[in-house]
Specification:
Nucleoside Triphosphate Pyrophosphohydrolase; 2 helices; four-stranded mixed sheet
């Protein structure tokens, strides 16, 4: 089984809230909240993939990003490698260009949302860090 390399963004606004997207029901792990992003294409850097995906999905332009963590998860039917970056500096107003629901959430409330298992380490890091 091949592993899918995903660039994910922890997008923070000036109020310290993080942007979450609701996965469409027809997709893997549908109906759960996630940190926006998408697949890293062959020959593409993680930063380039993150910038491309956030523009395609949310109409955001990433001005600056920094690495947060890398985590792997095996769902049984799919393996993912999440390459997670913090995005504090961006332009544009986010909107779900693929019809997905978006929500700005205080970091302290992340534990009240249901995420795919692969995202749990990201949530734990945000709840236990200087972000909170």
């Amino acid at each position: 089984m091949s592993r899918i390399h995903v660039a994910a963004g922890v997008i923070l606004n000036d109020s310290g809230e993080v942007l979450l997207a609701l996965r469409p029901l027809h997709k893997h792990q549908g109906g759960l909240w996630e940190f926006p992003g998408g697949k890293v294409e062959a020959g593409e850097s993680v930063q380039a993939a993150l910038a491309r995906e956030l523009h395609e999905e949310l109409n955001l332009t990433v001005e600056q990003s920094e690495p947060l963590l890398i985590t792997e998860h095996d769902y049984g039917d799919k393996q993912v490698l999440l390459d997670v970056w913090v995005v504090r500096d961006f332009s544009g107003e986010p909107h779900g260009r693929e019809g997905q629901t978006l929500r700005w959430v205080p970091i302290s409330e992340l534990a009240t949302y249901k995420f795919p298992q692969a995202n749990e380490v990201i949530v734990a890091r945000l709840l236990s860090s200087a972000f909170n």
